[in-house]
Design brief:
Number of strands: 16
Number of domains: 2
CATH class of the largest domain: Mainly Beta
Structural class: alpha/beta
Strand content: 35-45%
Order of helices and strands: EHEEHEEHEEEEEHEEEEEEH
Largest sheet: 16 strands, mixed
CATH topology of the largest domain: Tumour Suppressor Smad4
Shape: elongated
CATH architecture of the largest domain: Sandwich
Distance between the termini: 49 Å
Bound molecules: NADP nicotinamide-adenine-dinucleotide phosphate
CATH superfamily of the largest domain: Probable inorganic polyphosphate/atp-NAD kinase, domain 2
Amino acid sequence: MKVSIYKNNSTKSQTIGNILSKLLSRYPDTFVFDDAKPDVVITVGGDGTLLSAFHHYVDQLDHTRFIGVHTGHLGFYADWQEFEIDHLVDSLLTYEGRTISYPLLEMTIQYTDGKKNNFLALNEAAIKQPEGTLVADVYLDGERFERFRGDGLTAATPTGSTAYNKANGGAVMHPSLASIQLSEIASINNRVFRTLGSPLVIGPDETIRVVPLNVDNGVTLTYDHLSQATTDIEWLEFRVAKEKIAFAEHRHTRFWHRVRDSFIGDEVID
Ligand code: NAP
């Protein structure tokens, strides 16, 4: 098994990553370190580290499996705690290759000079206007749906629905649903200006196109932790990607357990 350990810069993650590396080195017949073309990427940190690893290996999703070790704040994507790495190594020794896959978002950006770019996102993509109000027409499957005015819009995957999307009042979605959720960031809604005012979810064969109408001040496009500022965008389109992210399923926390652990924890019931 070709393994890469992808860690963030915190002292704790560096230490845990180095210990993990030593533990794996005890089995040279089973584990080979290969950062260029790994079968398994073990991230050590939090969700931010996993997002970063995802984008680092985004061209190798067809053969790469991810495992998250949690040393960060939340660790929504991480199945292993830092004190469990002995157990993680034991379980990798008997790993039979089962995976669990989650949907991704594909974003296409059409620039005014005719160029197009495609990006994949694990959590979400967003369009925001740093200054003033973003005015944008939203099309669903080619038909104009609404004119949006507000701070911005996000399009989230099911696993990303617990991140930015949730802060916008979006629903948490099970990742078995190949879908994308559009949510509004502070829309203007009154007698004069009107949007749907609630998140909407599209299925695998649908598209959402956003055509910003006042880009002269510039808009910011984000995809996960990455962003670009531009004044040269004609439209962007969101859809469920053909590609998926695969996690090693030798021990995988069930989605609703993950949500409960991350957002509710151990409540005290009188
Ligand atoms: P960050 O601002 O350093 O951290 C964002 C927080 O979101 C961290 O606590 C992170 O967990 C957590 N997180 C990431 N993915 C998650 C998921 N799928 N479900 C639940 N929580 C999740 O930014 P970052 O680490 O570079 O991450 C970028 C992400 O930040 C974006 O994809 C976006 O979803 C999120 N974000 C949220 C808001 C908001 O809620 N208002 C605004 C902007 C961006 P860890 O502590 O384990 O890393």
